[in-house]
Write a structure and sequence with these properties.
Elements lengths: L5 E10 L2 E11 L15 H8 L7 E6 L2 E2 L7 H7 L15 H11 L17
Bound molecules: adenosine-5'-triphosphate and magnesium ion.
């Protein structure tokens, strides 16, 4: 098996005194689709924001495509270009569909053909 595209080991994150992420361990293979679900406020968005370092974690390791994320990480913009996220609520474009909001960045930033983001790619298998 090839190395996971995302690997998180014993990761902990606090906001002040509040520990929002506790001992997170996760491996995601390239091209795998996974769902992270949980109650509102359980830390799903914070976890995703840590994976492109919009938030900093205090303990453990986050390795994205072989790059360990830390204060020493160089070229964070390059890593962020590969770790897309769709924001919630008012950060979405209200005049676009869910699919359009999700495919906007790959099409405009990564110049992916529109067809690759077509409905067939999100149809349940
Ligand atoms: N910048 C911040 N400073 C302090 N606390 C924060 C910050 N961002 C998030 N939190 C808190 O961290 C917890 C997790 O928030 P997060 O937004 O990650 O949850 P979520 O699982 O994505 O929720 P939702 O399902 O509502 O999107 C919440 O208690 C939230 O209030
Ligand atoms: Mg959220």
């Amino acid at each position: 098996m090839s190395d996971p595209i995302i690997k998180i080991q014993n990761m902990n994150k606090w906001f002040g005194d509040f520990q929002v992420l506790k001992n997170i361990n996760l491996e995601v293979e390239a091209n795998k689709k996974i769902v992270v679900c949980g109650p509102s406020g359980s830390g799903k968005s914070t976890l995703i924001r840590c994976i492109n370092r919009l938030e900093e974690h205090q303990e453990g390791d986050i390795i994205v495509d072989g790059n360990e994320l830390s204060e020493k990480t160089k070229d964070i913009e390059k890593i962020r270009a590969e770790v897309g996220m769709v924001f919630q609520q008012f950060n979405l474009f209200p005049h676009l569909s869910i699919l359009d909001n999700c495919t906007l960045a790959p099409i405009w930033v990564k110049k992916m053909p529109k067809k690759r983001g077509s409905r067939t790619s999100i149809r349940p298998t």
